[in-house]
Amino acid sequence: MKDKELFKGFDVEKYLEKKPEYDKYAIEQGWATKQELAQHPSSIWNKNDWQKAKQSMDDSVKLWVSAIERKLTPDNPEVQKLTEQLYDWIKNAWSHNKPKAIGATKEQFIGLGQMYCENPDFRQMWDNYHPQLAEFLAHAMKVYAEKNLK
Fold first, then answer.
1. pLDDT tens digit sequence for 97-149
2. What torsion do the CA atoms of 146, 84, 21, 46 make, to the nearest 10 degrees?
């Protein structure tokens, strides 16, 4: 896959427009409270902050796509190392290490992976990078969470 094709996944403008819908879903699933979401550092990010996050995501997606194309499984140690990096990115960038923030608990991390598959916007975002990426991520996130998170 060419770099140009890899960068079509995450649309910052669309995400920001639909963020209230995504927040509502997270609250309904019990993964976060309205207060927790309002306190996330991402709630005050500007467009430049979101562009930096997109660039970080685009860089890491290349490694995920490579793992899929090399037919690695979600429980493969290399994939689990990528999953640990994803977890750390989510925990640090979105929650500033708050223990109960999205991405920090086992249930929340698994739930986020489920959201990547169940929500059409998130699924499209990931699948724009690679048609198997949403499912692959969700499975790898579940394996990681069950093995490493409380």
1. 555 555 568 888 898 899 899 988 889 888 888 999 999 999 999 999 999 99
2. 160
Contact assessment for residue 102 and residue 31, using Cβ atoms and an 8 Å cutoff: yes
Q: Are 101 and 33 in contact (CB under 8 A)?
A: no
Region of residue 97 (phi > 0: left; psi between -120 and 50: alpha; otherwise: beta): left
The pTM score is: 0.71
Distances (CA, A) of 136 to 16, 32, 54, 116, 133: 25, 24, 20, 10, 5
Q: Which two tokens stand for residue 96?
A: 């500033």
For the chain, the structural domain boundaries read 3-148
